[in-house]
Structures are given as structure tokens and as C-alpha cells.
Amino acid sequence: MSAKQPEEYIRAGDCEFFERELASFVPDRIFDAHAHIWDSDHGEQVVWADGFPSDVGLDLYRQFVDCLHPARPVSALFLSLPWNKDRRHETNEWIARNIARDTTCRGHFFVEPDDDPDWVQQEVRRLGLHGLKCYFTYASSTWEADIPDYLPERLVKVADDEGWTITLHLVKARCIADPGNQYWIRHYCETYPNMKLILAHSARGFQPSHNLEGLPALQGLDNLYFDTSTNCEPHAHEVIIRLFGHRKLMYGSDFYLSHLRGRTFGASDSFVWVEEDSPVWNQKQLAFQPSLIGHEHLRSLKLACWSARLSDSDIEDIFWNNAAELFGVEPPRAS
Ligand SMILES: [Zn+2]
Question: Which of 10, 190, 261, 277 has the highest count of CB atoms within 10 angstroms of its CB?
């Protein structure tokens, strides 16, 4: 299959969706705090979707997200895709090369649990990266892994020494409602206050009740942040805004997932991903086309901001200022 161009991912209905739902909501500049770029020659494979170009660097990423939210300049924090365990060194280098071209972009270094902290420190410095990305598939127990299984404390200590950010994708069936996850997040944040921890996907609260149940236990941690990426449940974001304030929340597209179709739904005590090929879109009386996940996600964020009565400048914080300050693109404002 030949690679599709960015505009080929966009259908006529997507433009209507953006104009109707999002054009008046999305601010005029964006910091995308959770985005993926890759280079297949260096071992990355996009395994959930066919047709993406084998290499997506900074320029092509910007072309893709310009289809998602047109005519907005975008800077980003780039994260490796975690699929290929053998070639992560090349992908860390790929991100470093791309962000070196733009002083407003940032990159996280992909770590494995067994990494030597001194080596990680040297590599992140050498590559000019800004923090760490870990992933649960590198732990032995995967979906029920404890946080230290894929983010060991010795790596958090290095992040504290260096003032780095860490992007953490939680697992376990009840996610942030799980006492073990709460314990380790509080322990890391309190023990290492110079480290800043970012809980991806709005604390992976794809079942927003988990956020409502679990996040109160983490209030008061000043070095705890959230990126919104992929989560299509308004209440997941709203709980964060209500408990932590909007300054702790940062927009993330989760490109390339943003360019697939469907959405996440909270259900029972869990959630489901409904993808484009699901029969759910073709029920007799109600056949319709699934929207881009990136657009569904943005609409969920709009509904959360509306419900929390955020102002336009608050929304600009979520889309730019919070990330620009956390990642040192701009100096912190006086609070
Ligand atoms: Zn992601």
C-alpha cells in the first residue's frame, strides 16, 4: 500500500464538523503536549492503521495536524511510539533531530525499566531532549503492571535531578481509581518535587468515573499535570479542571491516533474503543459516518471547558500557555 497524504485522511464531513463544533473553540495557536512522530527506517511501525507514511517528522506532522485544526501554528512535545523494542535508540535520535530544528518543540526520551540512570542522564543531555516517556508493555505484567515495573524510582530520581517532565500512560483495570496507582504517583511527586509528572489521556480516565473516584486522592500535588490526548469523555477532563484547576491541563492530539476514526466510550466499570470498522455505525435507523478521533476528542474538551465555565483565556492556557511554561518555551507568568 502506498502512503496516503495528510489531506487524504480528511473527508468532507470532517470540515463541516470542524466548522460546526470546533472552529469557534480552538484557539489560534496550539501546543500539542502529546504527539508521535516516527521513521520506519529506524524501526518504528504504525501497527494500528495502514497508509501512514513510513517517515513522519516535524514538517509532515504539521501538515497532518493542520488538517485537524486548520491554520493554527502548532508546536509539540514528541514521544516515540513504543512498538519496536529493538530500535528505540534510533527513534530517540529521530525525535532529537526533529526538535533541534525548532526551538518551540520538545521531546521525551523513551526509557526501558532496566535502563541505567546515569546512562539515561547522559543520553537525554546528549540528544537535547527534555524528559522521559515510558510504556507498560516493557513491564512483565503489562496491563496490571505497577508503575515502578515500567517507571522505576531510580529513573524518577534522575528526572528530579535534571528538572525533567515524564509522560506516564497508566494501566490497571480501574486506572486512577486503583489505590496502587495513587500510591506511586503521590510517592513519586512528593519525593521528587523537581520532577513534573504528566498523566496521559486525562489520567487515562476513559471511564470518567475512575477520575471522579481516584483523583481526589492526588489533590495538592503541585508537580502533577495532565495531557488530554485521545480521551473523548468530557467528564474525564472536567474532573481534572474541577479538582486541580485548568492550569494543570494541556491539550494533546495523540497524532497519529487523532487521524483514525471512532471514539472511546466509558461503559460499565471500564471503557471501549469503537473503531471505524465496528458495526455500531451501521444500525438500520441510524447509519452515520464515524468522525476523526481527534475531532471527537476536541469536542469532548470543548464540552468540559463549557461545563467548567472557562473563559477564552483559560482555554488558551490549555492549548498553549500551560505547556509552553511547563516545557520552558516561555517563562512562567506571575501567578
Ligand atoms: Zn500516545
Answer: 261
